[in-house]
Every structure is written in structure tokens, then in C-alpha cells.
Amino acid sequence: MDNQRKKGSDYEQKAARFLEENGYRILQTNYRCRLGEIDVIAVDGKYLVYVEVKYRKNQEYGLPVEAVDYKKQRIISKVAQHYVMSHHLMDRPMRFDVVSILGEQIEIYKNAFEFIG
């Protein structure tokens, strides 16, 4: 595992713990299919939540949440749709959150973007 992937994995685990501390129930981390990957899949209340985790050391290149652009949102939406279909969860309302890690500061952006079909 290269350093970037290891660092990403470490921050995803940190984000998953933070989500659990905030009432989320983690179903899966690093869900992959041929369409792409979702960092964390969780349940928050009635919602099936797809979470993208973004880390930045500082704001030099903008806020971490700003890195989840339209292209990334489209990929996450397609992977979420694949997950829902393959796990027979079509009746569950879904939401897309972003966990932003800036240095040591962690924030959850609930409903950060809408499903892109």
C-alpha cells in the first residue's frame, strides 16, 4: 500500500469513528464496484448515507469539502445506485454527506449534494 492510500485509509477510519460518535451506524467502508468507490456507507436515522471523506492539511488549496466536485458527485451517485440495487434497498431514503478533515478539525456536511442520475 503506498503512502497516499495509507494516509487516505487512516483518515477514512478517523472519519468513521467520528460518524459513529455522532450517531451514525457504519455499514461498510471503502465500498468498490466497477463504477467507482464510496468511502463510507452508513445509516443515520431513516437515511442510508453515502459519505465522501476529504482531508486537507491546510486551506492552501481550499476547503476539503470543495474537492467534491460535480464529476465526483456523479461517480458517488452511480456507485450509490449500484449499492442500493445490489443490496435491495430501493425503499430506503438516501443522503450524501461529506466529512471534511482540515488539519485536526473534523466536520460533517449533511446532505452536501443531491443524487445525480
Explained architecture:
This protein is an alpha+beta fold and 117 residues long. The protein contains 2 helices and 5 strands; from the N terminus they run αβββαββ. The chain has helices spanning 3-21, 70-86, and strands at residues 25-33, 36-44, 47-56, 94-102, 105-113. It has a 5-stranded mixed sheet with strand order 1-2-3-4-5. The longest helix has 19 residues, at 3-21.
Query: Which outline best applies?
Result: globular
Rg for CA atoms: 14 Å
Spatial strand sequence of the major β-sheet? 1-2-3-4-5
Distance between the termini: 33 Å
The average pLDDT value, as a whole number, equals 94
Our estimate of the beta-strand percent is: 35-45%
For the sheet with most strands, the description reads: 5 strands, mixed
Q: How many β strands by DSSP?
A: 5
Helical segment count: 2
Q: What structural class do the secondary elements suggest?
A: alpha+beta
DSSP helix fraction: 25-40%
Pattern of helices and strands: HEEEHEE
Low-confidence stretches: none
